[in-house]
Each structure stands twice: as C-alpha cells, then as structure tokens.
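look at this:
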Amino acid sequence: MKSMLASLLALTLLTSAAAQSFTTPFEKSGGLATTTYDSCITYYKALVAHYPGKVRMLPMGPTDAGYPLHLLLYTNHGALDPQTWHKEGKVVILINNGIHPGEPDGIDASMMLVRDILEQKVHIPDNVGLAVIALYNIGGSLDRNEYSRPNQQGPIAYGFRGNAQNLDLNRDFTKCDSRNAVSFAKIFHWVDPHILIDNHVSDGADYQHVMTLLSTQHDKLGGQTGHVLHDLYAPALFSDMKTQGDQMTPYVNFEDSNPDKGWDAFYDEPRYSSGYAALFQTLSFMPETHMLKPFASRVRSTYRLMNIMFNEAGIHATEIIQAREADRVAIAREQTFGLSWKPDSTRWDLVDFKGYTADFKPSGVSGLPRMYYDHTRPYEKDVKLFNYFNTVDSVSKPNAYLIPQGWHAVTDLLALNGVPMHPLKRDTTMSVQVYRIEKYTSTSRPYEKHHRNSQVSVSTSTQTLHFRKGDWFIPMGYATDRYVVEMLEPTGDDSFFSWNFFDAILQEKEGYSAYRWEDLAAQYLVAHPELKAQLDERRAADPKFAASGAAQLDFVYKHSPYYEPEHMRYPVYRLQ
C-alpha cells in the first residue's frame, strides 16, 4: 500500500511539473503545429492560475462565433489596469492575434512570449504595459483546415480567413459588421494603446526576408507621432532585427513587377487595423512574416520582433507619450483634415532588399511561359520605397455636425468610438450647410457585405432646416475630430457613406403618375417663367433631352416643391 501511495504521489508530482512547464502545442510539435482555440484559452487560464496577481485575463465582449474575446494584461509592477498604466506614464502596447487564423504566427509567438516573461526568461521594461488579445477571429480559428492557404508553408492545420459571418475582420474596423469588431473597439478605447501590433503572414512576392513590417503610413498618421514613427521608433526596430540576425524589410507591395522600379508603401485606409489606429494617434504595425518560410522560422521571427518592440518602446517612452499627447491637443484645434492621400513619386526611402531573381519557364499546367523566383540567383540591392504621401482631398471641419435620429447604425458607431455627442433638448430651427450627392459609383459585386460607393461628388448649399428634440448634436474640438471627419464626410475614402450606411437617401420614396403630373407641371411652368426659361435652355443644348418628354417632365418635377427634399440630401449637416 505504501508503495502504491508513493507511486501515485510521484505520478501526481510529475503530472503537476509537466502541467507547469507550459510547453505550447507549437513547441510540442517541433514547430509544425499551431494551437487550437480551446488549447490557447486553456493554456492562458493555466498561466493565470499559476502566476496569480502577475497576469490578468478578462473576457472582453462577444464575437460572431458565440465566444468572448480574451484579453491578457501584464506589467512588471503595479496594477494590471491600462488606465493606471497611463497615469503612471507607461507606454501601453496592444497585441492582436489571429485576425486571419490561417496566419497564426502571432498566436503561438504570444503564448511563448507571455510565458517567458512570467518565467523571467525575457525581461520587458518597467515602463511598458502589455495587453494581448489571445485570438481575435475565433470563428475562423474553429473552421480548421489544411488547404485554404496553398501559398503558405505550414503549419500542418490552421484556421480560415473568414470569421463566423465569413467576413474579413481586417476590413471591418470602422464599419463594424461583426461583433468581433464592436468588441475590439471597446477594448481599443479602454486600453487606449500608444502602439498596436496586429500579427499577420504575407502573400505576394518571394524574397529572402522572413519578416516584413507594415506600419501606419507616417504622413497619414501625421503630427509628432508620425515623426516619431518614421524617424525614431521604426528605424530602431529594423536596426535591432538586423543586429539579431533576422533582417527585415518594409512590407513588400509588389508581386510580378520589377522591384527596380520600387514599390509604393501600403495605403492603409481606416478599414484596416493600422488605418483605424491612426485615427486615434496610435502607432500601428502589421508584422507580416513571409508565407514561404517554414512555420517555425516565422513564429520565432514574430516572437523576436515583438520583444524588440517592447524594449524600444521602453527606450523611447518619453518621445512616444509626449508626441501622442501633443497630437491629441493639435487634432482638437486642427481646422482642415485630409480625406485621401497618394504616394509622392518625387520622394522615397531606400530599402536594403534581399530578393530572388524573377525568370520564366514553361508552365506545367498550360505549357505557356510562367513566372517563378530562382533561388539559385539571390541578390541584394537598394530599392526605392515610396513612403511619403500627399493629401489629394481635404475638408475644413465645421463647428459641429447634426444627424437626425433614426440613423442609429452611424450614431451607435460614433458613440462606440468615444465621440462626444448629445441629443437636442428641444425642437429647433438652424441654418446649416447641406451636401447633395450629385454623382457616385457603386460596385456591381459585393465587397465585405457591401456594394461600396466611390467617385463621390457633392454640391453644397446653406439651408434652414428644422431639427427635432432627440436629434444628435456632435460638437467638434476634441481629440476624436479626425475620426469624426473621416467617417462623416461623404467623399472620404472609408466614410460611412462609402460603406452604404446612407444608401436609403439614394432612392426616391415618392413619385408621380405622368398623366396627372403633365397638367400640374404645365401650370407650374406658367406660374414660374424662370423655370420655363431653364427648360428651354436645356432643350436647346441637349437634343437627346429635347426628344424625351419623360426627361423634360422629370426636370420640371425635380425643380418644383413637389420633389422630395430628402432624395440625395446627405443627412449629416454641418453647423459653421
């Protein structure tokens, strides 16, 4: 009996020791496998239980898959609370993993990195606070397969790009069609990170680098934070990675083209994590490991880069924090905001790029010439990166915007993102600037649940309109002004209008029977000779119009008070 008890005790101790070793599925597989969602959350729960008070894990809102997001919080000393970190002058870093679960490198790298920090194998600066979303696209992670990424080398099984709604979550940060994105916005504004890291794996060209880095475009970010990003923090990351034998390159934005021509930096509209973060003066990065490198190499490179980012954030904490604080004050005072940008072809950065020579050979499928990268002919050369952007469209901000109640999808998103706003306390009449949608183009095929509007042009007028108690008044003069302007101005690249939030105004709700309107229209022209003159002028200038009775009848209708004013009138009004 004693022998049996001793054996059971020994087995219990061995099992306990094994459980506390916290070896990840990635490590157990020799770098071939990525964790599942269940094993990831179970792993972190075990870490939290083993290191009570050292790390904190919180469920942080629902996802489309029915499971909550989990947020890990860690700092060396003090409360495990982001608001406290800000008060203590710490740089706050938010890490997002598994937005595309077929690109799982960050999931596995973060599991090892959090463990190694807790086991004191890795030290992060005392002035840094970490917040880690364990696995963002839970639905995609549960949709596990081995075939959906044929370009990629490993792991042996992985999740799917689309979430439980089959949405690409890296196109959903502003429109928030998914519960994931709504929960992310709540996390983002609660954590209020100085730096966002959103881990990915690349598609596209073949080259020697394991890691590429896509960052918020510094001119779009603007202000002092843009300067800190481009001239201080990002160069330190590239230098440190090279010193550690893992030289990375900026995100490679070409595939079949010749790199000798250089490439444009990625244009990160607000739908992407980096573009969204820029609206709130956050330095944002999408590490993109190279798809054709072994999974183990990619995970270790992601681990290495995140560790470097923590250390450099600690070194440059003062510059990062002060720049962001200054820019938030400046944003509240800024009078003009850009709505779209394009690369400046006269300015560039030189990139030390290690590639493979592209060549052609007969296709094994068609027999026709096909492009391939010849690994027996590597090269290293300086390549132009066009990473300076100019504003091509801008707008002056009003003193306030007004949105009639009823446009709940828009006002709910403004509130979600911390925009100061309040309902009118009584009915009132105001003189406001009004946009009319004159032209737009809608896509014929859906893109992420929407037929997007682009090439938008508007006319502007001043009108006296009646607003009701409960309509939304959105004053400007806050750090959220940039977000508000880019989302509410209809010509913005990623505005709510571009994503169809206001498409109901593009359809007439009333109309006329032609035989009835003929008589009324004729009477109206007699009473309004100035409109009759306009009609005659249009007929003389446009033979096609002159030959169409229906077009002329509609012309009179649309220039009469019978025509509904809501049609094509953009229901976001500017108070100057």
In short: The chain has 18 helices and 20 strands.
